[in-house]
Each structure stands twice: as structure tokens, then as C-alpha cells.
From TrEMBL:
Keyword Heme: no
Protein name (record): Flavin-containing monooxygenase 1
Keyword list, A-Z: Endoplasmic reticulum, FAD, Flavoprotein, Membrane, Monooxygenase, NADP, Oxidoreductase, Transmembrane, Transmembrane helix
Organism listed in the record: Fregetta grallaria (White-bellied storm-petrel)
Domain of life (superkingdom): Eukaryota
EC number: 1.14.13.148, 1.14.13.8
UniProt xrefs under InterPro entries: FAD/NAD-bd_sf, Flavin_mOase, Flavin_mOase-like, Flavin_mOase_1, FMO-like
Length: 526
């Protein structure tokens, strides 16, 4: 028999992990505690009631071409940014297409994952699961933890003096279900992440007043960039990544700052971030106009709560409040793992490349999807899964022991589990690194000789996931075609009325500009 792998969770990471196991000839069993696939994106009770819940933002923040699995493009008629019902439909089609359902056990909770007594030689795990009140014990050769990082809300009430005497209602954004709760109320949203801003915008349609409290500020980007193109297809290109990563920190900060302030001057809206923080931008199309029309007010951090009001730092008068939403993020927790497997010390876990716990004698347990890239999570977790399954099989996958063992000392692997400090690496650089481990990283120079049109699209165009299927293990015949038609699928759902005699100018213009840049680069010995 093949190698048996336990996959924990059937969300985005769990599905792609199961698929990669099958691709490598391993035998996956995926355990999902709910009754269906989709993880975070499934809000059954609200979808059935005809009102999809908001968190984690009903509409995805990354465009469909950038957030597809690398060998399974979205249907061209799907909108560019997907409502969660359609994202679920895509995941269902993916599961169907690759025959994943028969490997998933629904309604099954993982109780514990423990090393077997002979772990040092076999690398095996004892896994206890529970379904319908009955516990079962299994032996697995390897484990992929895909339970995500949105499991345990972080609500540090001790940071908010006076909250115990506050007489209104307060809750964590995880508990938020529907804006009805804000009807006619004065609302305070604490925290300025994506969920905080989304909730503030939704609340302001029914509340009498909405205030957002942020100590750090944030850059706010729209889903649309210049000329209405999706932000991530413009922002996440190999050219842009090269520029961003060649610049020293302050210059890189300045570049993002300039970019964000082109849409609206953040300082005038009370949003300009503090210099010392390198923040991941928040995506929201409505916030600036809601501030401009007085529906939302931005205030500094909370100093203390009173009975029916709140006081902000460096702000003289107190503000009356009826209801508080804490958008203070999540703690990463793996209740089924022994503390010693993923050592979490002051909110840091030591994970090699954010995936393998560094102190296990054998790399047979991997944690997937823990990072928060600025961009889509799908292609990143899929690449993690492709790498991990090859490590499990013992193929050339760069876990040569000295490098892996030294990783502990290099400090590369300390990963902030508090999520206010986000993984700093560019997700493109990170994905490339993993791709190079398995030999799937596209070589722009190599392509330039064989297929110049493709090479230019790969370098100057959006870094879509299909690039990682052009070569190496898991090579996909359709990758080249998918890359060359990515703009067609992006424009199809919105170009629904085309004036006579017009043609698409975007990609051709990009090619011309690209060619000129390439020439300039050659001339100046870039």
C-alpha cells in the first residue's frame, strides 16, 4: 500500500492538499468536522436563509485569475471578484473534477494527533477522530494540518480599561452575522483590518453613527486599480515584485504609500499609517466615500471605556456608544496537537518556511495555509501542498538535513502567530522559493529563447498561478494557453456591451510597453 496521509480540514488548503497527495500517489484521508467542503467560505445557515453572511467579506478580495488553483482556471462567465456562493461553487467543481469527495470523511473531528512510540524511525502518527459521538484510532504515515488560522478569536480585553463597566453590548467580529444588530445604534468598530472595515461599511447603512478606532492607521486600496483593472493583476507582477524587493525598506514603504495616496490622500481622512509599521493594505471600495459623506468617522486608539461611552487617546471629549465590535484578529491554535509539536512561545512558532515544525526528527507533519499573503491564499497553499507531498515521498524537495536543521538557528522560521505582524515576504518571492524546491519555478530567460510571447506575458503580466504548471512535476498541458488567455477571462464578465468597432487595447498596449522596457533594460545593462 502507499503512504497514508491524514489531512485535517476540507477548506481551501485541505482540498488542494488532498489533490496533491493523489497526484503524488499517496493515500489521503481528509477529516472535515462540518458536513460539507469550503471551510471559511461556507455559511450554510445564512446562504440558506438567502442572506450570505459578511465575514470574511462576502466578496473575495483577490481577482479570479490570481486566486485560481494552478491547473483549474475559473469559468470565464464568473465575475472577476467572487461572492462566496460562487467561490464555493468553484471549490465544488474542483473537488468533483479531481475526485476528492470520496477521500473526505465529513462530520468528523480530530481529537488528537500524537507521535507513535517508534516515531524516530517510522515518522508515524496516532490520530484519534470522533464522529457521531464515537472515537476511532488510526495510524498515519504523515499529517497535513489545514485547519486554517481563523479558529480562535483573539479578544484581549485587558488592553481596554473600563470594558467591565461598559453597559452596552460588545462582541468579536467572528460572532458578527448580520447588520440588523446595529439598527439605530451608535457603533464603535475597534481595529482596521479587512473585516473591521467591511463591518463598519455594512453597519453604516443602518446605524445612526459608526466610528472606527485605529491606533496604527492603514493604507486602503480599491479592488480596482488604474483604468479599472483588478488591483492584484496590476500589483502582483514579476516586474513589480522585482522593483519592490530591490528597493531598501523605506523606499519600498514610500512606493506603497505613494500608490495608496493616489486614490485619496490618507492623511485628510485620518487613515495615514504610522511610519514604523509595515502594514498590509486593506481592500475596500467604499470606505473613503463613506468617510466623505460622514457615515464613518476614523478615531485614534481606545484609551478607556466608560458606562455608555468611550475615550480615545489624545482626544478631549468622550464619545457615546451603544455597541462595540472588536476586530482584533485571531490566535492560531491547534488544540489537537501536543504543545511540543508546534512550539508556540510568545505567539511565535518555529516553522521551516512557515510549514514544517523545525524540531521534529522526521518531517512528516506539515502546517498549511498559515501565512497571510497580500494576494490570494489559494496558489500559495497549493504550492505548499505540492512541496510537502514531495517531501513526504522523500523526493528531491530540499529538506536535506543540514539546511533543515540549521534553519532553527537562522531565525528565518520564526513566524508571528499573532497576525498583527504579518509575514513580511512577498507572496510571489515565497511561492517562487517553494516552486524552485520542486523544480516548478518558471524561468523567464529560458522562455525568452523558446517562446518570447509567453516570456513577456510571464514577466510583465500578472503572476497568475498557471505559471507554476509550465514545467516540473505536475506539469499541465493547458498552462500556456491559460496564461495567454487570462485577460480574456477577466474582461469577459464585464465587457457585456461592446460599442461597434472597438477592440481590446490592454494586452497589446502592455506588450508594446513591455517590449520598450525590455529594450531599455538591455541598452542600459539593467
Amino acid at each position: 500500500t502507499g503512504m497514508r496521509v491524514a489531512v485535517v480540514g476540507a477548506g481551501i488548503s485541505g482540498l488542494t492538499a488532498t489533490k496533491c497527495c493523489l497526484e503524488e500517489g499517496l493515500e489521503p484521508t481528509c477529516f472535515e468536522q462540518s458536513r460539507d467542503i469550503g471551510g471559511l467560505w461556507r455559511y450554510t445557515e445564512y446562504i440558506e436563509a438567502g442572506r450570505p453572511s459578511l465575514y470574511p467579506s462576502v466578496i473575495s478580495n483577490t481577482s479570479k485569475e490570481m486566486s485560481a488553483f494552478s491547473d483549474f482556471p475559473y469559468p470565464e462567465d464568473f465575475p472577476v471578484f467572487l461572492p462566496n456562493a460562487q467561490l464555493l461553487e468553484y471549490l465544488r467543481r474542483y473537488a468533483e473534477h479531481f475526485g476528492l469527495r470520496e477521500h473526505i470523511k465529513f462530520g468528523t473531528t480530530i481529537v488528537s494527533v500524537r507521535k507513535r512510540p517508534d516515531f524516530a524511525t517510522t515518522g508515524q502518527w496516532d490520530v484519534v477522530t470522533e464522529a457521531d459521538g464515537k472515537q476511532m484510532s488510526h495510524i498515519f504515515d504523515a499529517v497535513m494540518v489545514c485547519s486554517g488560522n481563523f479558529s480562535e478569536p483573539s479578544l484581549p480585553l485587558h488592553c481596554f480599561p473600563g470594558i467591565e463597566r461598559f453597559q452596552g453590548q460588545y462582541f468579536h467580529s467572528r460572532q458578527y452575522k448580520h447588520p440588523d444588530v446595529f439598527q439605530g445604534k451608535r457603533v464603535l468598530v475597534v481595529g482596521m483590518g479587512n473585516s473591521g472595515v467591511d463591518i463598519a461599511v455594512e453597519a453604516s447603512r443602518v446605524a445612526t453613527k459608526v466610528t472606527v478606532s485605529t491606533s496604527r492607521g492603514a493604507w486602503v486600496l480599491s479592488r480596482m486599480f488604474d483604468n479599472g483593472y483588478p488591483w492584484d493583476m496590476v500589483f502582483n507582477t514579476r516586474l513589480m515584485s522585482l522593483i519592490r524587493n530591490s528597493l531598501p525598506g523605506p523606499l519600498s514603504w514610500g512606493l506603497i504609500n505613494y500608490r495608496a495616496n493616489q486614490w485619496f490622500k490618507h492623511e485628510n481622512y485620518g487613515l495615514q499609517p504610522e511610519k514604523r509599521y509595515f502594514l498590509v493594505p486593506v481592500l475596500n471600495d467604499d470606505l473613503p466615500s463613506y468617510i466623505l459623506t460622514g457615515r464613518i468617522t476614523i478615531k485614534p486608539g481606545v484609551k478607556e471605556f466608560k458606562d455608555n461611552s468611550v475615550v480615545f487617546h489624545n482626544y478631549p471629549e468622550e464619545e457615546p456608544i451603544d455597541i462595540v465590535v472588536f476586530c482584533t484578529g485571531y490566535n492560531v491554535s491547534f488544540p489537537f496537537l501536543e504543545e511540543a509539536v508546534v512550539k508556540v512561545e510568545n505567539k511565535h512558532a518555529s516553522l521551516y518556511k512557515y510549514v514544517f515544525p523545525t524540531h521534529l526528527q522526521r518531517p512528516t507533519l506539515a502546517v498549511l495555509g498559515l501565512i497571510k499573503p497580500l494576494g490570494a491564499i489559494m496558489p500559495v497553499t497549493e504550492m505548499q501542498a505540492r512541496w510537502v507531498t514531495r517531501v513526504f515521498k522523500g523526493r528531491r524537495a530540499n529538506m536535506s538535513s543540514p539546511m533543515y536543521q540549521n534553519a532553527v538557528q537562522t531565525g528565518h522560521i520564526l513566524f508571528g502567530l499573532s497576525f498583527d505582524e504579518v509575514l513580511k515576504t512577498d507572496c510571489l518571492v515565497y511561492t517562487d522559493k517553494l516552486a524552485s524546491f520542486i523544480g516548478a519555478k518558471p524561468s523567464v530567460l529560458g522562455l525568452l529563447c523558446r517562446d518570447p510571447r509567453l516570456a513577456l506575458t510571464v514577466f510583465f503580466g500578472p503572476c497568475t498561478p498557471y505559471q507554476y504548471r509550465l514545467g516540473g512535476p505536475g506539469r499541465w498541458e493547458g498552462a500556456r494557453q491559460a496564461i495567454l488567455t487570462q485577460w480574456d477571462r477577466t474582461l469577459k464578465p464585464t465587457r457585456t456591451r461592446v460599442p461597434t468597432g472597438s477592440s481590446s487595447s490592454c494586452p497589446s498596449l502592455l506588450t508594446v510597453v513591455g517590449f520598450l522596457l525590455l529594450l531599455a533594460a538591455l541598452v542600459f545593462g539593467f
